[in-house]
Amino acid sequence: MKNYKPKGRLTSSAYIDGVLKGDRVLLSRAITIIESSLESDKLLAKNIIQTILPHSGNSIRIGITGVPGVGKSTFIESFGKHLIKEGHRVAILSIDPSSQRSKGSILGDKTRMEELANLEEAYIRPSASGDTLGGVANKTGETMLLCEAAGYNVVLIETVGVGQSETAVHGMTDFFLLLMLSGAGDELQGIKKGIMEMADMVVINKADGNNISMSEMARIQYQNALHIFPLSESGWSPVVSTASAIKNIGISNVWDEIKNFKRMVDENGYFNKNRNYQQIQWMYNNINEELKQLFYGSKNIKNQLNDLEKKIISNKISPVKAAEIMIQEFKNSLN
Amino acid sequence: MKNYKPKGRLTSSAYIDGVLKGDRVLLSRAITIIESSLESDKLLAKNIIQTILPHSGNSIRIGITGVPGVGKSTFIESFGKHLIKEGHRVAILSIDPSSQRSKGSILGDKTRMEELANLEEAYIRPSASGDTLGGVANKTGETMLLCEAAGYNVVLIETVGVGQSETAVHGMTDFFLLLMLSGAGDELQGIKKGIMEMADMVVINKADGNNISMSEMARIQYQNALHIFPLSESGWSPVVSTASAIKNIGISNVWDEIKNFKRMVDENGYFNKNRNYQQIQWMYNNINEELKQLFYGSKNIKNQLNDLEKKIISNKISPVKAAEIMIQEFKNSLN
User: Fold this and answer.
1) Total beta-carbon pairs less than 8 A apart between chain A and chain B
2) Which of A48, A138, A228, B201 sits at 20 to 30 Å (Cα–Cα) from B252?
């Protein structure tokens, strides 16, 4: 199966030309190759990426997160339409290793942003599937590069806000947007620790009707809270605002703040510095993941680790000694 | 030099008996062996740790951090004396891989807690030195086990609050205490992102004289801010209080809160669950560090990584491909 070569594959230059011309069909087919696990596709994917690489990077990359129910799709639809009205071309990707999406839900993904999906200037691609977060992040990252090469100058990468994937998205974007709801902080229970500190902007969504005064109170509360955080390396002070995606209120303000941010980090040099850092970190993340795979991928090692865990808990062996034993075992297995 | 066997070493059972009897001199000498990098001492250290292991764990482990100038030493002196008055035996360790302490500063370390150092029920041991945070953390962790076996039932582990070592300390303690000062949030600039979210308690120190009302304002501000954080897995809501270590005000309250915490996590099972998790994580941290060492320790690999970093930044190679090349290189070097 791994050596099966699907019919209908084009040459790498056909995909490359198509992507660089902004051809949506060829872009989609190129992304399918990036996401494929077939050996023949992997080689094709490498050629495509390698050639489009110098044409990538010309976008602002925005991470968007928030728990289910916060109105992410509605927000992205409203925000995306605003960006397009301002003359931008918008790619919307998502990262979610927990959901193995079927073709049915790809459709579902597009229907939830129906109007946006019908616009020529928007390109919506749901989450790649995969077993590991690292694998999914690689695919989303490479898909982002293809979209940029195809002329999309704003990339939105969405996550669900409840797992590990926010760190991955934060590590591949320029600006990190956290969507929240008003209401006594209860909704925060779903947001993992550490996500608040990543946010460049917090938007209290659904600030309409009876919710307006509650949302304004939440805004002040969050603004005060973020104020006491240490400043990010970018020098940017996180902003909190309210919005109603469904009524299209406060959406243009979000984009204005992102433009302010971009202007600042262009001037102080952080934008390029951070991009370079992220690219290099991307390599190191892959190396470290692969190193762990070499070690933990062995069934023999896994069984022994289980035994050692039990011995550690019952104080029969020290953690330091247990680690030494396993590393020795691993070194022996290499020879 | 590595095979040099120093004169005057005792048998492992002499150290073990001494530690278990709470003999301070033998405890100190046993810790010196733990910290030693001599091969003969390493074997001795393993024997000691392995035997005292079942006698360790009977303490509450408290991490204390805060930037220089916050009054950590004065706080620990005041807090330690309070604990001893309540009948406890207190060990004070520190973790600080950045400072290669000389014998001179060991003395300095004790002088800054002069009264505490003179009490029979207190044991103060400055930071082990070492090249890597992982190495220093191992030594501090094992020193902690020895202190517990010697009958110290409260262990305070201190860090400087500006580096990576807080995560290490958080990973080996039950309760994490952050010392702060009042004053417009400026002092937070020195605290790294993420540390606030680890805190089980924030103490605004130096709340005396003209500082009292400012400190109270800071307390309310931090309390409100911490309120909007996601709840920790322990179920504990972080507490903020004011204190003046130098005037001995608010110190007993800190201990009361820690007792409240302990009662809660004993009842809900988190205390044991977290201890087990930490012990196992200790093994995995060592394994992962060692795996990285195997890879990044090679000079050949280091040189190539430097080249690849440059190529990545200039878009000549994709990060994913660069990682693949390096992993292949590593695999080849193993055969």
Assistant:
1) 174
2) A228
State pLDDT tens for residues A78-132: 999 999 999 999 999 988 766 544 333 444 455 678 889 889 999 999 877 777 7
A319 at the B interface (CB within 8 A)? yes
* Angle, alpha carbons B322-B326-B328 (nearest 5°): 115
Q: What angle do CA B202, B207, B208 make, to 5 degrees?
A: 165
Write down the pLDDT at residue B162: 62
From B279, B312, B334, residue closest to A319, measured CB to CB: B279
For chain A, the farthest-separated pair of C-alpha atoms sits apart, in whole angstroms, at 69
Rounded to the nearest 10°, the torsion over CA A285, A287, A293, A294 is -160
Q: Looking at the domain A56-268, which fold is it?
A: Rossmann fold (3.40.50)
Contact assignment for A230 to B318 by CB distance below 8 Å: no
A residues 75-114 closer than 8 Å to B (CB): none
Residue type, B178: L
Question: B318 and A49: CB-CB below 8 Å?
Answer: yes
| B56-267 has the same fold as B1-55 | no
ipTM over 0.90: no
Residue in chain B nearest A306 by alpha carbon: B280
On whether the CB atoms of residues A281 and B313 are closer than 8 A, the answer is no
Domain borders along chain A are 1-54, 56-268, 297-334
List of chain B residues whose C-beta atoms are within 8 Å of the C-beta of residue A333: none
Query: What CATH number is given for B1-55 in this structure?
Result: 1.20.5
Chain A contacts of B280, Cβ < 8 Å? 309, 312-313, 319
Helices (H), chain B: 12-20, 24-35, 39-52, 72-85, 103-111, 114-117, 133-149, 165-170, 195-198, 212-227, 251-267, 270-296, 299-313, 319-334
> Do A318 and B57 make contact, defined as CB atoms within 8 angstroms?
no
Q: Rounded CA gap, B117 and B329, in Å? A: 54
| Spatial separation of the C-alpha atoms in residues B216 and A84, rounded to whole Å | 49
Q: Which residues face A125 on adjacent strands?
A: A93
Measured in angstroms, the CA of A85 and the nearest CA of chain B are apart by: 31
**CB distance from A131 to chain B under 8 Å?**
no
Q: Are A318 and B231 an interchain contact pair (Cβ–Cβ within 8 Å)?
A: no
Low-confidence ranges of chain B (pLDDT < 70): 1-5, 97-111, 161-163, 184-191, 335
Q: Give the closest-approach CA distance of B295 to chain A in angstroms.
A: 8
DSSP letter for each residue of A226-272? HHTSPPPTT-PPPEEEE-BTTTTBSHHHHHHHHHHHHHHHHHSSHHH
Burial class (CB in 10 A: 0-12, 13-18, 19+), A163: middle
| Residue B249 structure tokens | 């005000």
CATH, domain A1-54, list 1.20.5, 3.40.190, 3.30.1340, 2.60.120 = 1.20.5
CATH class belonging to B56-267: alpha beta
Question: B184-220 burial, b for 16+ CB within 10 Å, e for fewer?
Answer: ebebbeebbebbbbbbbbbbbbbbbeebeebbeebbe
* Residues above pLDDT 90, as percent of chain A: 61
Of B46, B142, B188, the CB nearest to A228: B188
CA distance A51 to A11: 13
Residue with tokens 């075992």: A329
What pTM does this model have?
0.84
